Amino acid sequence: MKRIVSAIFIMVNIVLNAAGQITPDKNIICVDVNVPQNASYTYDSAFVASKNLGMTQTGLFFTWASIETSPGVFDFSYLDIANIYYPAYNTSVDLTIAPIATNHLEVPADLASYPMDNPIVINRFKILLDSIFAHIPSLQLSSLEIGSEVDVYLGSDSAKWTQYTNFYSSVSAYAKSLRVNVKVACEVTFDGLTGSSSNFVQTLNTFSDLIAVSYYPLNSDFTVKPVSIIPADFAQIIELYPSKPIYFTQFGYPSSAVCNSSNELQSQFIQQTFASWDQYASNIKMIDFTWMHDLSPETISYYSTYYGIADTKFLNFLGSIGLRTYAGSGIDKPAYNELICQANRRGYNNINCVTSIDNNTLEPGFKIFPNPANNILFLEFNKSTNAISEIKIANAFQQEVYDKKVTGYQTSLDISGLAAGAYFVHVTTDKGVNYIQKILIIK
After folding, report:
1. Cβ–Cβ under 8 Å, residues 17 and 433
2. What is the pTM of this model?
3. If you placed Cys at 115, which of 100, 163, 304, 308 could pair as Cys (CB 3.0 to 4.6 Å)?
């Protein structure tokens, strides 16, 4: 009998009905919606799944050069679709228009030699904004980001920072004159926000209505940092910006072993995120989880060329950051189930969720053993406050494979008919409390 047991399958769960501090009326869950390989799983499919999860706004990204394809010539085809699509779903949009995208200047080619605060550049961007807003009269904007991870391109060049800040102060004020209530921001990376560029960013953000930050806790070699750093990272941002709302406009964690990660670590990242978000609910208004699906090999290749990075760890970071897999119609990773459950516990959805959380947080006196199991599984409460009422077992695809009504504080289950693999044991008590524990069955 095979006895090799992965630690991934031995993680277990906590009570699911504990109250969180973030609430749907004050805090926003977003998902960057993209699609898997199978064309039958459309954008509509992914978008509706995200809406069901609890998403009320989503992000749209364009570079300046992708809209103004040549001087005074614009392509508004996607924005015209957005103006119809998202209002039909009562979904607002965080719209990014990027003159700078990470390590690239993305202005029209005829403007590339001008400093960003040249009046010609500023006036052309204002014309771009005029045209954009004319094409999206029905689209509700939750925010407008002018630039994406601009600190990467600007680096330590103080002259370029001054030029971009001057440009940003002018065009952001103009955007708000076109739509009085629009919230304007400029996205930077967490390292740019808190590191050597922090002073430049703080000056820039005097013209921002909110603080937009991309957050991927990685080392310089694209291996993951421990999820335990999240509380300190959140606190560091809030210490810098205590009075402005924080929007995490990109937010993710890879699952690839090449990045020293795993599916379970990615799931723990989601768990720790929500625990920390609860602590700072009044400051952190929105988190946009990136991406819904892993990226295709073709997309990874494109980004490798675009960013000029061929490092294997970087490519595996890009290729495993999704909450669902890419192949076929995609399969939920544990992190996706974790996101559903964490949102569920805070009132964002009514999905029957499956989650995997550390064993130490289980209700004292409640046991499901052995784990891993073979043919028999035992369940037991060692105190009289709860009694077992019903037990259900679901497979890794959340399909129910076992159901048993129980009266009492302990029972055993004959699971000899279940194939080897990962399963989730759902226990309902006579007090209406729900527990879930992840188990591994081996044969």
Report:
1. yes
2. 0.78
3. 163
Helix ranges restricted to H, 222-296: 230-240, 263-279
Beta strands in 117-217 (DSSP E): 141-148, 184-185, 188-189, 211-215
Task: Return phi, psi of residue 60, to 5°.
Answer: -125, 135
What digits encode the pLDDT tens for the residues 274-292?
989 999 999 999 999 999 9
Separation CA 92–CA 144 (nearest Å): 11
Distance (Å, rounded) from C-alpha 413 to C-alpha 422?
16
- The answer to whether 82 and 117 are in contact (CB under 8 A) is no
Amino acid (1-letter code) at residue 307: Y
- Helix axis angle, 297-307 relative to 312-319, nearest 10°? 130
DSSP code, position 283: T
How far, CA to CA in Å, does 419 sit from each of 8, 13, 315, 334, 401?
A: 18, 22, 34, 20, 11
pLDDT in tens, 209-255: 999 999 999 999 999 999 999 999 999 999 999 999 999 999 999 99
- For the chain, the first-to-last Cα distance in angstroms comes to 6
Phi (first) and psi of residue 260, to 5 degrees = 65, 30
Query: CA 317, CA 304: separation in Å to the nearest integer?
Result: 11
Contacts of 226 by beta carbon, 8 Å cutoff, 6+ apart: none
> Which residue is listed with tokens 């590339």?
112
pLDDT (tens digit per residue) in 284-328:
999 999 999 999 999 999 999 999 999 999 999 999 999 999 999
